Amino acid sequence: GENVEQHPSTLSVQEGDSAVIKCTYSDSASNYFPWYKQELGKGPQLIIDIRSNVGEKKDQRIAVTLNKTAKHFSLHITETQPEDSAVYFCAARNTDKLIFGTGTRLQVFP
Amino acid sequence: NAGVTQTPKFQVLKTGQSMTLQCAQDMNHEYMSWYRQDPGMGLRLIHYSVGAGITDQGEVPNGYNVSRSTTEDFPLRLLSAAPSQTSVYFCASSYSTPGSQETQYFGPGTRLLVL
């Protein structure tokens, strides 16, 4: 089955700096890769996703890149703000299932 | 719309007790799923359903049962709770399977402690 690895597990950045979170997946048949943000005490919320026929997608300060050959995808947050502090999860779709990475705790210091 | 609702918010059980975690959505979503979240392990899929009357196993189904008699409800049953089932449980739903054009919405979670 699919296996998703996510790095780093924690990330601290200064406000205004960029943050990058990386994930790798094992099943070359996976074709959908969402990113979720989870704030304390809440359920995860989708922030951006990318499909296997696209190499990059951007939404304001957030971008995701996908390298199908290497089977890895990354989340890029530019001009980070304190409200970006949260746990971020990547995921990969395998048939009817979403398989999640282990999460990255991002802290943005003012 | 209330979105995805889960009850209870918090529950303490003794080993061997049974209980049902409730999940409901009012968005007419066909696809519903249950995840558990443990420190350092991310979200792991327990069971999922692609529509009323249809359920299937996820990554970690042992010790849990589900049923889907209506589109709106997808309860998760623990028949004999074990300390290893201490976790935060999330229910999620979407119009169709993840990877279609539809966003998967998560509920607020149920925190379960098994003593």
- How far the N terminus sits from the C terminus of chain B, by CA atoms, comes to 36 Å
Number of strands of chain A: 11
The most extensive contact between chains is:
A-B, 25 and 26 residues
Please tell me the overall pLDDT of chain B: 93
- Poorly predicted tracts of residues of chain A: none
Instruction: Let me know the largest β-sheet of chain A.
Output: 6 strands, mixed
Shape of chain A: globular
Silhouette of chain B:
globular
Count all strands of chain B and give the number: 11
Give the helices and strands of chain B as they follow along the chain: EEEEEEEEEEE
Determine the mean pLDDT of chain A: 94
Q: In terms of per-residue confidence, which ranges of chain B show pLDDT below 50 for 5 or more consecutive residues?
A: none
Over the alpha carbons, how many angstroms does the gyration radius of chain B reach? 13 Å
**Oligomer state of the chains in this structure:** heterodimer
Write up what this structure looks like.
The complex is a heterodimer of chains A (110) and B (115). Chain A is mostly beta strands and 110 residues long. Helices cover 0% and strands 59% of the residues of chain A. Chain B has no helices and eleven strands. Chain B is mainly β. The chains are: A mainly beta (110), B mainly beta (115). Chains A and B meet through β4, β5, β9 and β10 of A and β4 and β5 of B.
